[in-house]
Amino acid sequence: MNTSRFTAGEPAVEITRVEPGLWHALDDGRVTGRAETTTRPDGRVFLSVDAWHRSVFDQLAHAMLAALPEPLHTVVDETDDETLAAWRQAGFTIRRREWEYAVPTDPRVTGPARPVTIVPAEADPLRELDRVVRAEVDATVGWAEMPAEVLVRPPDDPAKYAVAVEDGEYVGLIRVAQVTRLPRIGLVAVRADRRRRGIARALLADALGVLHRAGIETASAEVKETNEAATALFDGIGARRTNSTLELVRHGR
């Protein structure tokens, strides 16, 4: 159990909305906590609160909830018991769990993949593949079930992507993002009519190989626990689960 997330004591603070999506907790003019909102591409609004004292956390959360329309979301490390309890007390419930993976890049660990033509992406055919993939998502699970890395808007930088090509068409794509100290596998997607042919594994093997040749031994990825295909893909290349995060939601009342 994480017992050091909040310190003891209940300082008297004043909550001030500094900007439309930013609140400060002030103790004699000194900022002792802050809260902010992030709107993801699919329109979901996520909250975050940074405070040393639980009472300050509660006051900031209360101010946000009073000012914002629901539903509202937040993400918590599953091992952070105190923060999880604080959000639950504020009326949030668990919506989904995502596994965090450490993904090896060494091809001797990840194993062989089916030969597939993988090339750097070009803007126009990449946008067309993105349009097809987004339409398939809209027609099936919907964007609310997709992780944050799956962008609703079309890709604006083809250099961030590699694509799989069959019969002269783009049939799958991968994006690797350098968002932390570890590169993150942000997205692997294959057209519905080309799945179960090893294309996703080939895309992953290619991206990991590029990282390995650059001297990077490990990448990271997040997979929704109920996504059996993605779980099997990462388990099959020797990735190991290192942690899990919970998405919480508070629905309108």
Kindly provide the name of the CATH class of the largest domain.
Answer: Alpha Beta
Supply the number of helical segments: 6
Helix content: 25-40%
Question: Within the CATH hierarchy, at the fold level, what is the topology of the largest domain?
Answer: Aminopeptidase
What distance separates the N and C termini?
A: 32 Å
Q: Could you give me the name of the CATH homologous superfamily of the largest domain?
A: Gcn5-related N-acetyltransferase (GNAT)
Protein name: GNAT family N-acetyltransferase
InterPro entries: Acyl_CoA_acyltransferase (IPR016181), Bact_Acetyltransf (IPR050832), GNAT_dom (IPR000182)
Keywords: Acyltransferase, Transferase
Pfam family, one: Acetyltransf_1
Per-chain topology:
Blueprint: E1 14-19, E2 22-27, E3 30-39, E4 45-51, H1 54-67, E5 72-77, H2 81-89, E6 93-104, H3 107-110, E7 117-120, H4 123-139, E8 161-166, E9 169-177, E10 184-190, H5 199-213, E11 218-224, H6 228-236, E12 240-250
InterPro entries: Acyl_CoA_acyltransferase (IPR016181), Bact_Acetyltransf (IPR050832), GNAT_dom (IPR000182)
Protein name: GNAT family N-acetyltransferase
Keywords: Acyltransferase, Transferase
Mind explaining what this structure looks like?
The protein is built from 6 helices and 12 strands. It has 253 residues and is an alpha+beta fold. A hairpin with a 6-residue loop joins strand 9 (169-177) and strand 10. The longest helix has 17 residues, at 123-139. The radius of gyration is 21 Å and the shape is elongated. The mean pLDDT is 86. Keywords: Acyltransferase, Transferase. Pfam families: Acetyltransf_1.
